[in-house]
Every structure is written in C-alpha cells, then in structure tokens.
Write a structure and sequence with these properties.
Blueprint lengths: L1 E8 L4 H11 L6 E7 L2 E8 L2 H10 L3 E7 L1 E3 L8 H11 L4 E6 L5 E5 L2 H17 L11 E3 L18 E4 L6 E3 L14 H22 L4 E7 L2 E6 L5 E8 L1 E7 L2 H14 L10 E3 L2 E4 L1
Parallel strand pairs: 13-15, 14-16
Antiparallel strand pairs: 1-3, 1-4, 2-3, 5-7, 6-7, 8-9, 9-10, 11-14, 12-13
Helix pairs in contact: 1-2, 5-6
Length: 288
C-alpha cells in the first residue's frame, strides 16, 4: 500500500479531473482526503499499487509530489482514548506521525518519519489488542412515564393510579401498570409479565436462529411461559423460577435435534444470561 501526495489546483473541477484519470486507468482509491492549503489542493490518497496510480495521474498532467509506504493498524473504535494512546506510544518511540487517515476497511493509515520504528510499535500494539477480544456493546434506551393527572398524587398508598406507559424512540407505547395484587390495572401489562415475556421472546429468537443454521424448518412456535414471584415479610420480592413451555412445529428436520437445540438457545439467550432466577425449559416438538 502506498500513500501518494497529490498537488491539485485550488479550483472547481480539479478533484473531478483526478478522479477521472484514476477511473479511466482502472485504479481505485482505498482511503485518504484532500485539503486546501495556501492556494493549492493537497491530497493524500491510499492505493494498492502506487506506481499505477502515479502513472495515471502524471499522464493526465496532475502532479504527484511524493509516494510513500504506510503503516496500517486498527483501533478499538468503541473505546475512547485509543488514538491518544497510540500517538503517545509512537512519540515515546521517537516516531513523528506526519499524515493520518482511515481506509475503507476502518484501518488507521499512518505516514511517519521512521517507518521501521513505527512498524515495531504497530506490531506490539496489535499483539496486545489481539490477546483480549474487545467486547461489542449495544445500548438500549427506554422511557417510562407516569402522571398523577387529576389525582392527588402519592399522598398515600391508595391515592394514586399505577397506570403508566413504557416507550422507545420510534415505537408505539406499551400500556402498563402494576399487577392487580398491587392495586394495578388488570387490562395493562405489568413489569412481572414483561420480565417473563422478555425471557421467553429472547429464547425463541435464539432458537429460531439455531434451527435456521441446523437444517430444521420451523413453521410455528408458541410458548406459554410462567414465572413465580415470592414475597418476603418486608414486602420485597424476587422471582424464584421461570418456566418456558415452547411448542414447536417443524416441517423438516430431526425431532430430537430440534428438542436439543433448546438447551443451546437457553445458553445463548441474552436475557437468561443476565438474570439469576432458575429457568426451566420444557419443550414440545412435533412435525407439521
């Protein structure tokens, strides 16, 4: 991989002419950028074959000022401070980073004044980061809204309604309340039901995925899940068990294999792995 420093006229169409010259020669740009400095456009672009790119540009009358090797490495993009840590490592090794940008595969591209030292730093950096795989993170945001409305608010335990809404951006709200045993509205979902439903739905989605990659064709899936909440003398409570009863209809595949996949689905389920309540799965599989 080569970085080319390309000098363009600072006028409309100069970049288009560069792109046309490269396109006509069948040369692709792998990364880079262009900046206007002191009346000239200074571009740094990355090419798999620097000689072919330079030849195409010079044939079109476009000046190529420099052609240089690059150092390529990866940062953990979701982890703040990566660029600073790498730059400090390079500085401590006496390496001056002259040009920096990213390629189309999200690699960091460096042009430096001491390539040998920079490659040594890069190799050590990559070894350290490959020894521990970075964790991917997904963030979920929901909103809960309750209002006293025309009521007196929480003046006492019996004075306020338990009705509230649960929402997420771009989605219809869920009408929720407390369980009727706790003065809630029986026509609305309560947190305990949603907890059990989350475990059930997560298990189902993993199970369908596993079947799809195991040659088992599922055509119907129903689960009548249940959970038991135990209350303490002080009013606190905790779930002591959750049981899933998935009934699965398959059109193609081995019935026993379809049953066995429930164990793996439970092991992989995000929600099941995040709670400490015992979860039992009692599956049924039948051929449709």
């Amino acid at each position: 991989m080569k970085d080319l420093e390309i000098v363009l006229d600072d006028r409309p169409g100069a970049l288009a002419e560069m792109g046309d010259a490269l396109g006509q020669a069948g040369v692709s740009i792998e990364g880079g950028g262009v900046f206007s400095i002191d009346g000239s456009g200074i571009a740094h672009f990355l090419f798999n074959d620097g000689a072919d790119a330079a030849g195409a540009l010079r044939s079109a009358g476009i000046r190529v000022a420099k052609e240089r090797d690059v150092v390529t490495l990866r940062l953990r993009q979701a982890e703040p401070g990566q660029l600073g840590a790498l730059a400090r490592r390079m500085a401590d090794a006496g390496v001056n980073i002259e040009i920096i940008y990213s390629d189309h595969d999200h690699n960091l591209i460096l042009v430096v004044d001491d390539e040998a030292r920079a490659r040594a730093v890069s190799a050590e950096w990559m070894r350290e980061r490959s020894s521990v795989a970075p964790a991917k993170r997904h963030r979920y945001e929901t909103s809960v809204h309750w209002s006293a409305g025309d009521g007196p608010g929480t003046t006492n335990y019996r004075s306020y309604a338990r009705a509230h809404t649960i929402g997420a951006e771009g989605k219809l709200p869920i009408a929720a309340s407390a369980d009727p045993a706790f003065r809630g509205d029986a026509t609305r979902y309560n947190p305990e039901e949603l907890f059990v439903a989350s475990i059930s739905a997560c298990h189902m989605l993993w199970y369908l995925h596993l079947c799809s990659t195991s040659g088992i064709v599922v055509v119907d899936y129903r689960d009548e899940a249940s959970g038991t909440l135990e209350l303490g003398a002080d009013g606190s409570g905790r779930f002591v068990n959750v049981t899933l009863h998935p009934a699965v209809a398959i059109r193609f595949g081995d019935v026993q294999a379809a049953i066995d996949l429930h164990k793996r689905a439970h092991e992989l389920c995000f929600i099941a792995r995040s709670v400490n309540v015992p979860i039992e799965v009692k599956p049924e599989v039948f051929v449709s």
